[in-house]
Amino acid sequence: KGTLRGTRLALRYMSEAEGGSGGVIINMASMAGVNPNPFSPVYGASKAGIIHATRSLAISPEVQKSRIRLNVLCPAFVDTPMFRNMASGDASQISCSNLAAVKAFVDHIGVMSVEEVAAAFLDLVKDETKNGIILRCAKKTGIQYSTLTVQDV
């Protein structure tokens, strides 16, 4: 809930209609919200929600008039305390007791440094052409801008 509440608060204060000067909001999600992670399904579901909410707000007519861009950064594994807890088998972080399978999954994807993620974040801040974009970043695949295809119903 914190990401969505923070986003709505930022929209209110940043909106030109409310006296703000526009800008950019970058929400943090995860590659687990884009690609399935068999070891953290609930975490992935919550990150998918952040991705969808961010992209939905970005195309909202009200937000588009506010001169605010919204994007979402989706890193894969990053060398943080939370990642180290997950990789060590912390039951609050994963839904699997097979540490060998977790390690193989992590090794396949790779682990980014915090600095690499910060550089990707700055790309989203600086590029004023990006709105409603997912920036996927992973050690082995690098940085990839992505949009999920939206179909009329």
Automatic annotation (TrEMBL):
<dbReference type="Pfam" id="PF00106">
    <property type="entry name" value="adh_short"/>
</dbReference>
<comment type="similarity">
    <text>Belongs to the short-chain dehydrogenases/reductases (SDR) family.</text>
</comment>
<dbReference type="InterPro" id="IPR002347">
    <property type="entry name" value="SDR_fam"/>
</dbReference>
<dbReference type="InterPro" id="IPR036291">
    <property type="entry name" value="NAD(P)-bd_dom_sf"/>
</dbReference>
<comment type="function">
    <text>Catalyzes the NAD-dependent dehydrogenation (oxidation) of a broad array of hydroxylated polyunsaturated fatty acids (mainly eicosanoids and docosanoids, including prostaglandins, lipoxins and resolvins), yielding their corresponding keto (oxo) metabolites. Decreases the levels of the pro-proliferative prostaglandins such as prostaglandin E2 (whose activity is increased in cancer because of an increase in the expression of cyclooxygenase 2) and generates oxo-fatty acid products that can profoundly influence cell function by abrogating pro-inflammatory cytokine expression.</text>
</comment>
<protein>
    <recommendedName>
        <fullName>15-hydroxyprostaglandin dehydrogenase [NAD(+)]</fullName>
        <ecNumber>1.1.1.141</ecNumber>
        <ecNumber>1.1.1.232</ecNumber>
    </recommendedName>
</protein>
<keyword id="KW-0560">Oxidoreductase</keyword>
